[in-house]
């Protein structure tokens, strides 16, 4: 079944991550944040139990959108220009969150870590057996990525919420890209783009020693 006009389709969301990478391997913040907005919309459609996750994601997206639409918007066109600008201007708290608690660099780092979860989750979803549990795929991906950075209480709440996820086939269907088989194909096409955004960001942050920003 094709997605109805105006209906939510994850194809567009994943397309945003594709559009985020330029030929010069820069990451454009506009499409990057659009991709996140779409993911949050999808998360909200899964139920109120996920709202503590989407609230945090939205707060971070909003911080970034305000930079991207603000006075220094040229500096926030790409991830590369943002890192260069914030570091050169002393706008990043490197040791302790104090004067610049919401720098673009630390805010994107949180989304970047979540993107690793997404990459693992989608890969798990794509390659799992038909009768696999989405909650298991999600928990495994989370434990192998984001969980490292979360305190016990957040890990507990996240794991409880994951139990509310629908079965793998139902999940593939609500992605609204056609049959589960078509969704699997779409995931195979989309994943290299997400991996590319993830890899470029990881390299940039490693280069500037930003991977542990408080
Ligand atoms: C489908 C299930 C979604 C599961 C999402 C997994 C992430 C769990 C994260 C739990 C985070 C809880 C709230 C707060 C955390 C913050 O402390 C933490 C650090 O920030 P800070 O400022 O305190 O240092 N924040 C984060 O780690 C950011 C977390 C952002 C999570 C964004 C998840 C967006 C998910 C979208 C759903 C995608 C569904 C995938 C299907 C796509 C299919 C093509």
Q: If you had to describe this structure to a student in words, what would you say it looks like?
A:
With 214 residues, the protein is mostly helical. The protein has one domain (10-94, 104-207): Glycolipid transfer protein (Glycolipid transfer protein, GLTP), CATH 1.10.3520. It is 63% helix and 0% strand. The chain has helices spanning 10-19, 29-45, 51-68, 79-88, 104-127, 134-143, 152-162, 168-174, 180-207. The model is unreliable at 1-6 (pLDDT under 50). The site of ligand 1Q0 has 22 residues, from helix 1, helix 2, helix 3, helix 5 and helix 6. It catalyses: N-(9Z-octadecenoyl)-sphing-4-enine-1-phosphate(in) = N-(9Z-octadecenoyl)-sphing-4-enine-1-phosphate(out); N-(hexadecanoyl)-sphing-4-enine-1-phosphate(in) = N-(hexadecanoyl)-sphing-4-enine-1-phosphate(out). This is Ceramide-1-phosphate transfer protein. It is found in: Cell membrane; Cytoplasm, Cytosol; Endosome membrane; Golgi apparatus, trans-Golgi network membrane.
């Amino acid at each position: 079944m094709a997605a109805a006009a105006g209906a939510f389709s994850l194809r567009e969301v994943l397309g945003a991550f594709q559009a985020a990478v330029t030929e010069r391997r820069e990451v454009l913040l506009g499409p990057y944040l659009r991709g996140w907005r779409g993911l949050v919309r999808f998360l909200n459609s899964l139920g109120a139990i996920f709202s503590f996750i989407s609230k945090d994601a939205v707060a971070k997206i909003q911080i970034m959108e305000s930079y991207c639409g603000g006075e220094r918007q040229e500096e926030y066109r790409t991830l590369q220009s943002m890192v260069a600008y914030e570091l050169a201007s002393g706008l990043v708290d490197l040791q302790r969150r104090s004067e610049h608690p919401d720098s673009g660099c630390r805010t994107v780092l949180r989304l970047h870590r979540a993107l690793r979860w997404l990459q693992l989750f989608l890969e798990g979803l794509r390659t799992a057996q038909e009768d696999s549990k989405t909650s298991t795929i999600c928990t495994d991906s989370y434990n192998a990525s984001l969980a490292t950075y979360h305190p016990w209480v957040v890990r507990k709440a996240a794991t409880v919420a994951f139990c509310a996820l629908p079965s793998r086939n139902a999940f593939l269907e609500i992605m609204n890209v056609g049959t589960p088989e078509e969704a699997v194909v779409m995931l195979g096409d989309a994943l290299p783009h997400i991996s590319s955004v993830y890899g470029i960001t990881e390299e940039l942050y490693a280069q500037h020693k930003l991977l542990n920003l408080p």
